[in-house]
Amino acid sequence: MRTRLSFAGALAVITAIPAVSNSAGAQGTLSTQGFGYPPGQISAGAAALGGGPAETDAASALNPAAMAAWGRPGVYFEYAPEFRSVSANGQSDNTTTSRFPLAAGAMMLGTRVTLGVSLSTLLDRTWETTRTGYKQLVLDSVPFTEDFRSAGAINDVKAGISVGVLRTLWLGVAADVFSGDNDLTITRSSSDTTVAVYNQTARMSYSGIGASAGIMWQPDQVLAIGISGRLGGRLTSYRNDTVLTRATAPDRAGAGIAFTGLPGVILAFRADWDGWKSMNGLGSAGLGVVNTWDYGGGAEFRGPSALGAPLALRIGYRRRGLPFLVDSAKIMESAYSGGVGVLLAQGRSRIDLTLVRSVRNGLPGVTEHAWTMEFGVMVRP
Amino acid sequence: MSRSRTILPWKVGVSVPRKSWPVLTLLGIAVAVIGGCQEQLASGAACPSLCPDTLVVKDTVFSGKAAFDTITTVVGIPPLGTETSLLVGDFTQGGSPVQTAAIMRFDSLVRIFPDTDTTAAKRPFTRVDSSALSIIVIPPTDSTKDTILVPDSITFVVYDVNVNAPDFDTAAVHARLNTLPIASRVVPRDSVKGAIRIPLDTGWVAQHVRNGVRIRLGLRIQSALPAQIVVGSTEGSQGATLQYFGYADTSRSFITRGVNTVGEPGTPTLKSLSDYDLVLQGTPPPPPGILAAGGIPGSRIYMRFNVPAVLIDSSATIVRANLILHQAANLTFFPSDTTDTILLQTRVVQATPFVTDIGTAALLVADPATLGATGIPTSNLRPNTEHPDTIPIVGLFILWKRVGPRASQRALVLKSSAEGIDPQQYFFYSLDAPNDTLRPRLEISYILKSGFGLP
């Protein structure tokens, strides 16, 4: 057994990545309603194929069995800024947000066992809205500007093990710990000097548990199948250390398949179900939460060699529902993606650049478009 | 035993780049470009449909006893003896006369030759000469008013105002100012500045020095034209002095004695009464039902609020508080020069709730800005007009919330910027005004702290 990177070392690298949950997105948008936007817990490379290979992808934080695909100790982290445009009422807003949605690491114990840990954003609740208007105060109408901002996320910290039980079958289990904070600030000001600035802050914290399990089966040299699920445990919200609400962390189940039977081509597809509705009691009474399906697939082509390495050229498409309703309307997201993967250090390391074009709609009169650049680095010394 | 395992990668096959630095450089540039993105989160075009519920602002209007625990006029500001300067005037403004005098006490005089040899026998002064009262004339802060306030030569007139009366019985002192003066000096207009000596009768002073009798002087001015000057006081560290040469045998000593006072037997000594201003003719008391600020002597309007603690000390936040007053026209003393105006100032009371004397509380005030309370303007109002006035005081409520209920009274004072200097007075209707629209009231807008956070 050779361990090139200690588990503690890998964990230290992962936790040193600043603000894994520091994703962004403005409410005043379709995507960041409720407890926030689910980035998906998939790696940049998998995202380029519409999330198709996520069930068999080592870096994605879905299937614990897929940790076996690390092959050697390593770490992965991802940065994903999003450039979003929301159009409504004949007006549009452009926002730029930064995200660090995923970091992961793994180490080998012999040839059959892989230990891994990942930190991924489950729901990103970072947004800011600014609205202006006039308010009647006693007999006067005074102008106001109200700025409402939220920063933070609910994260999924997953620690698991993958064991090869047969030459073609791997089983994985993981413990999920959900934690995170939302820092919220409301500021209301006025150009009328008789009106004082109002400022209120609140910190919401979350904690919860869950358990994940999955299998990865390779019935043939050209076929890999991944199936995984998560059972959510109790999820609790706090305001300044006071318990506010309790609910159940969302269950999920998904399956994916990757096919390499065509020369130089990989095809991958995936379907995923998320039981967000179990979070219903975590929010206020009027919060609409629905379970969602997530479908996606794509292809990867062996590209030209550049700088001595073949480039992986990827395209994909993904369609999914978002968990939080807007005025009882269900929001859908469609995303076209493309990307490039570069292998480094004799294949031990990898850099993925992915560009995703998303369209989110469902509420009449409001459309949201986003360009997301996902930049992932996997290092396996 | 170890078996070989192959995991199907979903990625492309492996090639071996021998030189990876160009790729790394390219990717480094990409990282730099991506990392250089400046976050810009704010949006709002899709509000209100996509925006969270926001703040609810509530309004309430307090009037009468619901708004004010106490609202009254405090007359006689500054209190006798606490003046930092003394107005000595004889003028008319708006057709009404103003006459003031400065009273200076020299209750303790130097009567013994100041020997350096303290063991030597004491040698009382047997003779005095070159005696004089020395005063300091303080120039107006607005230098352009030099010739307006002192348009002609000034005659300084000094009276003997020593009376056997309680300290605060100014009526007897007032009566002495109508007797014959004991000294006077004419000073040309251009010389009415700085230190001015007014010679006193040497025999009169010598008699007081030798006989151990106190000297109390009253100072007035006379001029062919209305005039007013400001003389330094001991509170302003520019008090008057009594000067003379004292003789003991053949020895001579120049004595300069500042104003001072000694209480009557059995009464405390109030040092502040060493010198004070006495208003002979000035601003009359306000009519019934009227609150007044300003004048000679000065008046202040004291208001202590009765706003429920739930609005100040709880989770509610007051975002606007407007004090609504209705100003009544006051034509008395309104100057013909309409550019010569006074300002209405709001001051926050710093006395604690344990200070129950309103007169005292009305003196313990501060400029709100010095305490961090912003947005409380000084109002440029003309006293001769009648109209409603709005004074924003939300800054005071924020201050009171910050310091808590025990640190200071929740009270304010309205005063004139020329209190004790200009006879004009602001008039405002009181709670006794004939109808509601004229009475003071308090309009408050507030936001109850919301339990926001949960979507």
Commentary on this structure:
The complex is a heterodimer of chains A (381) and B (455). By secondary structure, chain A is mostly beta strands. Chain A is built from two helices and 18 strands. Chain A has a single domain, classed as Porin (Beta Barrel), CATH 2.40.160. Chain A has a 14-stranded antiparallel beta barrel. In chain A, β6 and β7 form a beta hairpin. Chain A starts with 6 loop residues before the first helix and ends with a strand. Residues 1-26 of chain A have low confidence and may be disordered. Chain B is mainly beta. Chain B folds into two domains: 59-77 and 288-447, Jelly Rolls, CATH 2.60.120; 85-281. In chain B, 12% of the residues lie in helices and 36% in strands. Residues 11-20 of chain B have low confidence and may be disordered. At the A-B interface, β2, β3, β6, β7 and β8 of A face α1, β1, β2, β17 and α7 of B.
**SSE order of chain B in H/E notation?**
HEEEEEEHEHEEHEEEEEEEHEEHEEHEEE
Helicity of chain A, as a percent range = under 10%
Shape of chain B: elongated
> Which whole number gives the mean pLDDT of chain A?
89
Strand content of chain A: over 45%
Total helical elements of chain B: 7
Distance between the termini of chain B: 56 Å
Number of strands of chain A: 18
Evaluate the radius of gyration of chain B. Answer: 35 Å
- Give the total of beta strands of chain B: 23
Give the domain tally of chain B.
2
How many structural units, i.e. domains of chain A? 1
Uncertain ranges of chain B: 11-20
Helix content of chain B: 10-25%
